[in-house]
Specification:
two-stranded antiparallel sheet; binds geranylgeranyl diphosphate; mainly alpha; 2 strands; single chain
Length: 289
């Protein structure tokens, strides 16, 4: 059974190691264990299960995905980036621990993610023979061709009056979509999926990533900050290039519906086994957090 509590208890276990420096560990745990939807670990574990893999072997990959995602949120909230005081329903990491410590807590989560993946590999390679291929997919999604490139382009295009639809797609396919796609694909590869199934999972990830971003942009305009757990209205304040800003709210909503349809179609070959993903796509359209 894959659920939020299971993922949180795996994360807690990884953070319970006695040899980790206590104060740094506190700053890491403050954000990692603060809540959050655990979307990326869920995508990874459900993809592994859907293709008939052993989800136990994918657990370190799933935990690492959440650590990487959490580091990106901590860094994104820093004054030199998106400058946000509120995240996951509580003050941002740097508001509690200071900027330098928040930067280091993020660095520590990013590197610890790969320490977890690599040190757990030998234990799981028997059940997940392509475990390291899945790990490479995560590194690719998180790094220089993925999330970091997207964040770079996002910052570079703030207040850019010439930024267009192509730039918007470039930014969000990487900043948000790359780690989401990596989560789904890594789960499939850890489950030893055949190339056709990996291709289907990748298509789902790409479309679901766009869907997730459009709804994130819409929440920033239409959502309730208490329910979302972060400051809203910031995209407009920073003159960010977003789907509602470029296309208007109604068109952005229609685009989200279309992306949900493409995402669901991508998984047609899995039939009923894709139910969790199909439900997720539908629920994302009306999400409130
Ligand atoms: C600092 C390299 C670097 C990247 C930052 C994650 C990110 C890239 C920016 C955050 C800005 C943002 C709101 C992006 C939209 C999509 C997104 C990643 C939302 C947050 O993810 P959720 O909704 O958060 O899954 P929880 O807290 O539920 O895990």
């Amino acid at each position: 059974m894959i659920n939020l509590e299971q993922i949180t208890s795996v994360l807690e276990a990884y953070m319970r190691r006695e040899d980790l420096p206590a104060a740094l560990c506190e700053a890491m745990k403050y954000s990692l264990l603060a809540g959050g939807k655990r979307l990326r670990p869920m995508l990874c574990l459900y993809a592994c299960e859907m293709v008939g893999g052993d989800t136990e072997a994918a657990l370190p990959l799933a935990a690492a995905l959440e650590m990487i995602h959490t580091y990106s949120l901590i860094h994104d909230d820093l004054p030199c980036m998106d400058d946000d005081d509120f995240r996951r329903g509580r003050p941002s990491n740097h508001k509690v621990f200071g900027e330098a410590n928040a930067l280091l807590a993020g660095d520590a989560l990013l590197t610890y993610a790969f320490e977890v993946i690599l040190s757990e590999g030998p234990r799981h390679i028997g059940k997940a023979p392509r475990y390291y291929e899945a790990a490479a997919e995560i590194a690719h999604g998180a790094g220089v061709s993925g999330m970091v490139a997207g964040q770079w382009a996002d910052l570079a295009n703030e207040k850019n009056p010439c930024a267009d639809a192509e730039t918007l797609t470039y930014i969000h396919a990487r900043k948000t979509g790359a780690l989401i796609t990596a989560a789904v694909v890594a789960g499939g590869i850890a489950g030893n999926a055949d190339p056709e199934s990996v291709g289907a999972l990748r298509r789902f990830g790409v479309h679901y990533g766009v869907l997730f971003q459009i709804t994130d942009d819409l929440l920033d305009v239409l959502g309730d900050s208490k329910t979302v757990g972060k400051t809203l209205g910031k995209d407009a304040a920073h003159q960010k290039l977003t789907y509602p800003a470029l296309y208007g709210i109604e068109t952005a909503k229609r685009m989200a519906q279309e992306e949900a349809r493409f995402a669901k179609e991508a998984l047609r070959q899995f039939g009923d086994r894709a139910t969790w993903f199909l439900t997720l796509a539908d629920q994302t359209l009306t999400r409130t957090f």
